[in-house]
Amino acid sequence: MQLRKPTLDDLHLLFGWINDPFTIRNSRSGKPVAWETHSRWFPEKLLDQNYRFFVGLTDDESPCGLVWFYKNADGIFETSLNLASNWRGKHISEPLLRSAILRNDPDSVYSAEIHNSNVVAIKVFRKCGFKLAYTQPNISTYVRIKKAEAS
Ligand SMILES: CC(C)(COP(=O)(O)OP(=O)(O)OC[C@H]1O[C@@H](n2cnc3c(N)ncnc32)[C@H](O)[C@@H]1OP(=O)(O)O)[C@@H](O)C(=O)NCCC(=O)NCCS
């Protein structure tokens, strides 16, 4: 899948994706993001070297989803994946996540926190080489360690 870096022109597009009801339900806070928060947070993080954003592009170059990584103090890339609702159910989330990891750094360690009820996301992350590392009642942490595991 083709990827591009988002720009400030994507501010409204990403705001819509973040506030999709299914995305909210599967987010850590479980709450919508206010425009005030998003319009401050996103431009700031675009300039932060520890944040890496990738927008997926379909064959006709439509933006279809976002992967973003946050490099934490341990050097682990905390991973989020969100597909535009009109592109869900088409099996493009796996190539999107896989491409973003390869483009970012295939040899680094990645982690993702996923609600235990989010069976679709768990499936996609597992296919990209993530394995269950730590589980809590509602949410579990998945980790991807080796490049070979995602191929
Ligand atoms: C997670 C997400 C990116 C997955 O994308 P998607 O387009 O919905 O999923 P896909 O169509 O690629 O399907 C992935 C797999 O889940 C399966 N699946 C779909 N719905 C399912 C369901 N209700 N139960 C079980 N499996 C299901 C699909 O069949 C597919 O498996 P397969 O390839 O073996 O057939 C998307 O649902 C999303 O944006 N969710 C909101 C944000 C989120 O939850 N992010 C994850 C935490 S970071």
Structure in words:
- The structure is a single chain.
- The chain is α+β, with helices and mostly antiparallel strands and 151 residues long.
- The chain has one domain (2-150): 3-Layer(aba) Sandwich (Aminopeptidase), CATH 3.40.630.30.
- It contains five helices and seven strands; from the N terminus they run E-H-H-H-E-E-E-H-E-H-E-E.
- The chain has a seven-stranded mixed β-sheet with strand order 1-2-3-4-5-7-6, with helices on both faces.
- The longest helix has 12 residues, at 35-46.
Q: Structural class of the helix and strand makeup?
A: alpha+beta
Distance between the termini: 14 Å
| Overall domain count | 1
Shape: globular
**Into which percentage range does the β-strand content fall?**
25-35%
pLDDT below 50 for ≥5 consecutive residues: which ranges? none
The CATH topology is given as Aminopeptidase
- For the largest beta sheet, what order do the strands appear in spatially? 1-2-3-4-5-7-6
- Could you tell me which ligands this complex binds, including any ions or cofactors? coenzyme A
Number of strands: 7
* Average pLDDT taken over every residue: 95
Corresponding CATH superfamily = Gcn5-related N-acetyltransferase (GNAT)
Examine the secondary-structure arrangement and name the CATH architecture.
3-Layer(aba) Sandwich
Counted by DSSP, the helix tally is 5
CATH class: Alpha Beta
Helix percent band: 25-40%
- Our Rg estimate from Cα atoms comes to 15 Å
| N-to-C series of helices and strands | EHHHEEEHEHEE
Task: Tell me the major beta sheet.
Answer: 7 strands, mixed
